[in-house]
Design goal:
This protein is of the alpha/beta class. It has helices spanning 5-11, 18-29, 34-41, 52-58, 90-98, 106-112; strands spanning 48-51, 64-72, 82-88, 102-105, 119-122. Strands 1, 2, 3, 4 and 5 form a five-stranded parallel sheet that branches. Helix 4 (52-58) links the parallel strand 1 and strand 2. Helix 2 packs antiparallel against helix 3 and helix 2 (18-29) packs parallel to helix 6 (106-112). The longest helix is centred in the first third of the chain and has 12 residues, at 18-29. The mean pLDDT is 92.
Length: 123
């Protein structure tokens, strides 16, 4: 069941990490990013850990991919992707740069792309 804006608003003060709280607030303000707001404001237990192999298999060249959680450096990336996540391992960040991709924090993508156009969420 999807969480309402009110439920998301009640979850935000419980977040001890200010980065998570700010990301939740920014996503909550924009209707296009409502799904991301629900995921970020939820339990950390539900965050994803995604390896580069999975990104390589599920995304097309030039996609903007959102991962609510952490990107891990296992595997190789052969596609040029814009990867937005809460956290990145150093090896993942390095391999994405080698593939001529871009690593962006989710909050920065919310500010740049307020309509969430061309965004693909990987859980």
């Amino acid at each position: 069941m999807a969480a309402s804006k009110t439920a998301i608003g009640r979850r935000i003060p419980r977040k001890t990490d200010t980065y998570i709280a700010q990301t939740s607030m920014a996503a909550k303000k924009n209707k296009s990013w409502q799904t991301v707001a629900q995921l970020v404001s939820g339990s950390r237990r539900n965050y994803s850990s995604v390896n580069l192999d999975r990104l390589n298999s599920e995304a097309e060249d030039g996609d903007t991919v959102i991962v609510v959680g952490k990107i891990l450096g296992n595997g190789d990336l052969t596609k040029k992707l814009k990867v937005c996540a809460l956290y990145f391992s150093e090896s993942a960040r390095h391999k994405i740069k080698q593939a001529k991709g871009e690593t962006v924090n989710i909050i920065d993508e919310i500010e740049k792309n307020s309509s969430a156009k061309g965004v693909k969420i990987i859980r």
